[in-house]
Write a structure and sequence with these properties.
Length: 115
């Protein structure tokens, strides 16, 4: 499974990466983008991932800007500290919404939705 992570905070990136490594045996983290501009460039320059884990507020804007500019077909699992984006997330290929701080159990539940 090819995975892209959009996350601006290093501790949050490390947490999701650890959960991926523990819970998804056959995975490839294709990349990590911390900003809207990095994410747009990645999606333009690489094949589409199978799954995206995406924070909503990135260094230079909202991840929704990424998905408006680059339509993706793959599912997105959103993770954020803000609950006000829930409706918008599910209008953007969102299949799960992890509210920070989320647990490994929450992460596993989101993966079940993917599968």
């Amino acid at each position: 499974m090819r995975i892209l992570i959009l996350e601006d905070e290093l501790p949050a990136y490390e947490k999701i990466k650890a959960f991926i490594e523990k819970n998804i045996p056959a995975h490839e983290i294709m990349g990590w983008a911390r900003s809207v501009s990095e994410a747009k460039k990645f999606l333009t320059d690489h094949p589409e991932p199978n799954l995206i884990f995406s924070d909503i507020e990135l260094l230079d804007g909202s991840s929704f800007e990424v998905f408006e500019a680059h339509k993706v077909e793959c599912p997105i699992i959103f993770s954020t500290a803000f609950d006000q984006y829930l409706f918008q997330a599910f209008q953007t290929n969102g299949i799960a919404y992890l509210l920070k701080p989320y647990s490994e159990e929450n992460f596993q539940e989101a993966l079940r939705k993917y599968h």
